[in-house]
């Protein structure tokens, strides 16, 4: 008899059955009978019976075999009966894994639970909500006042750049911790946390795939949790920039507040495949929205007949075009704003000593590479999308 593995969670979406396994990648089963799979498994069928109930064709055989091999399905009887030696116990996962781009660390759930245990009781009270609201309102007022009337770079540009990098990394880590804490709040366990170099810039991420099978409202909140953290950190930076009497803090905090807003726009708009687009996909119950939309746009541009996965809904090509044009426009506009905010610092760095020039190259190099390859990637994805 086969059943879902104990670690597997699932939900039924418009596109099929969404499965989440903490030990592997999430899955979307786009099968004619995928929505019946939980009901069929409740009757404790054998693998052969399940294959027959799913259609008894090649696709059904492949589906059942693939799910067994991926650990999504298991047969408890096969592990408790039968001749031969018992299977070896699986090795515990490594706490730290070195990847091609950086490090992945297990155990982020422990830190997320600590943060949740400390912050959530206070934030769930009226006092906590008023405090957060007051910080955001004060931050908004500080931003509307405009750039402080002070030098935009201190007398030691390398200190500005180094402090800004540190604050930026701390804000990015707080953003990802927001996603992890939201998962803990809804009873799920965050996967591995990672830090690595993306186009040369140090970035952070948290595996949130265990949240894919949460109820819709919880999925949307979890997707936007990082942006809520960003709203607070940007507000604090703006307040410090307006109230500080130190040129270094004024310059750095204002610069990081504006770049933080830029990051919030990039993450929040449902264009690029980040938080805003994920939240929209959750709201529409379209788990593979971005991939299908760009595939539909590619078929439309090449005047090819629609494939079964892109035929519905009818607005898919339009959203694909919107995300492509909007994504390119957003990246270009972001580059302009980024230069407006950080241009003074870059000029000071590139006219300084060799160490300051190296810091300037590190600041501008990954950003330009990210812009270039993101634009090229968007275009190539549409142009070469296969059915």
Automatic annotation (TrEMBL):
The keyword Transmembrane applies. It comes from the Bacteria. The lineage of its organism: Bacteria, Bacillati, Actinomycetota, Actinomycetes, Mycobacteriales. The chain crosses the membrane at residues 126-145, 165-184, 196-214, 321-342, 354-380. This is Peptidase M50 family protein. Keywords: Membrane, Transmembrane, Transmembrane helix.
């Amino acid at each position: 008899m086969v059943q879902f593995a104990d670690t597997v969670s699932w939900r039924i979406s418009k596109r099929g059955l969404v499965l989440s396994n903490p030990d592997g990648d999430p899955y979307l089963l786009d099968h004619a009978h995928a929505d019946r799979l939980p009901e069929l498994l409740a009757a404790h069928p054998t693998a052969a019976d399940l294959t027959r109930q799913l259609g008894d064709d090649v696709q059904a055989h492949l589906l059942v075999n693939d799910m067994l091999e991926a650990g999504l399905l298991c047969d408890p009887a096969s592990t408790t009966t039968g001749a031969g030696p018992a299977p070896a116990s699986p090795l515990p996962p490594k706490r730290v894994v070195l990847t091609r781009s950086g490090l992945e660390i297990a155990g982020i759930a422990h830190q997320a639970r600590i943060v949740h245990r400390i912050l959530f009781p206070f934030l769930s009270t009226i006092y906590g909500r008023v405090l957060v609201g007051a910080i955001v309102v004060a931050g908004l007022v500080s931003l509307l006042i405009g750039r402080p009337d002070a030098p935009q770079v201190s007398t030691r540009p390398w200190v500005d750049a180094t402090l800004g990098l540190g604050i930026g990394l701390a804000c990015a880590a707080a953003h990802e911790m927001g996603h992890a804490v939201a998962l803990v709040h809804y009873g799920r366990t965050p996967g591995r946390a990672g830090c690595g170099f993306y186009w040369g810039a140090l970035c952070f991420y948290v595996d949130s795939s265990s949240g894919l099978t949460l109820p819709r409202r919880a999925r949307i909140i979890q997707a936007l949790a990082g942006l809520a953290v960003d709203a607070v950190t940007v507000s604090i930076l703006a307040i410090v920039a307006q109230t500080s009497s130190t040129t270094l803090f004024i310059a750095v905090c204002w610069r990081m507040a504006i770049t933080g807003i830029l990051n919030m726009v990039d993450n929040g708009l449902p264009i690029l495949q980040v938080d805003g687009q994920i939240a929209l996909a959750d709201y529409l119950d379209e788990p593979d929205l971005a991939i299908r939309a760009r595939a539909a746009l590619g078929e439309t541009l090449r005047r090819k007949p629609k494939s079964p996965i892109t035929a519905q809904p009818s607005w898919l090509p339009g959203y694909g075009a919107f995300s492509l044009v909007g994504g390119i426009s957003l990246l270009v506009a972001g580059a302009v704003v980024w230069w407006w905010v950080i241009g003074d610092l870059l000029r000071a760095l590139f006219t300084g000593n060799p160490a300051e020039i190296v810091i300037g190259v590190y600041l501008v190099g990954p950003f330009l590479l990210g812009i270039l390859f993101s634009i090229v990637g968007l275009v190539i994805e549409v142009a070469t999308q296969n059915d």
